[in-house]
Amino acid sequence: MSMRGSCMETPLKIQRQVMEVNFFGHVLITKLLLDSIPDSGAIVVIGSLQGKVAIPYRSAYSASKHAIQAFFDSLRTEDRPNLQILTISAGYINTGFGSRALNTDGRPMGVEDENQTNGLSVEYAASTIVKALINRETELLMAPFKLRIAVGLRYFAPNFLFWMLHKRGQKDPHQSKKDH
């Protein structure tokens, strides 16, 4: 579940709804099934690049993806070191996901995001994930190079990244009504 809207204009109800689905849903399912998964098995977590770099007007979505990354990083280091946990930090994938994102009123946007439409194909994403599972990887950064750069900037030049994201946010159609 995603959302579009400023941090301040997105009601807490929407923030909680996104966290319920994107974070607590994963946690609950994992807790219920973990004992049934053999050490030779795997858990695949579909996260987002936004779990590593938050972007403007996606606060609840980014927060939920940061949280899911942290939960599975912790689980990975606890008592099942042989169990493969593959967290996927995906960029945009052309799934129609953007049109179902909630607005600040809690209704689906109904319009596809251009970045989503131009994103990776579902087939490419699936084959890339299967290869990562076969190679027993734990992290998959599945995004074009220019988006991967943002992850590096987050750690090595955060002020520059935040300035760039601010500039991006000024062009975002979901910009705060107060800013217009």
From TrEMBL:
Gene Ontology cellular component annotations, sorted alphabetically: membrane
Annotated PROSITE patterns: ADH_SHORT
Any Pfam family: adh_short
Keyword Transcription regulation: no
Keyword annotations: Oxidoreductase
GO MF term set: oxidoreductase activity
Keyword Oxidoreductase: yes
Transmembrane parts of this sequence: none
Gene3D superfamilies: NAD(P)-binding Rossmann-like Domain
InterPro entries: NAD(P)-bd_dom_sf (IPR036291), Sc_DH/Rdtase_CS (IPR020904), SDR_fam (IPR002347)
Family assignment from sequence similarity: Belongs to the short-chain dehydrogenases/reductases (SDR) family.
Summary of the function given for this chain in its UniProt record: Putative oxidoreductase.
Name of protein: Uncharacterized protein
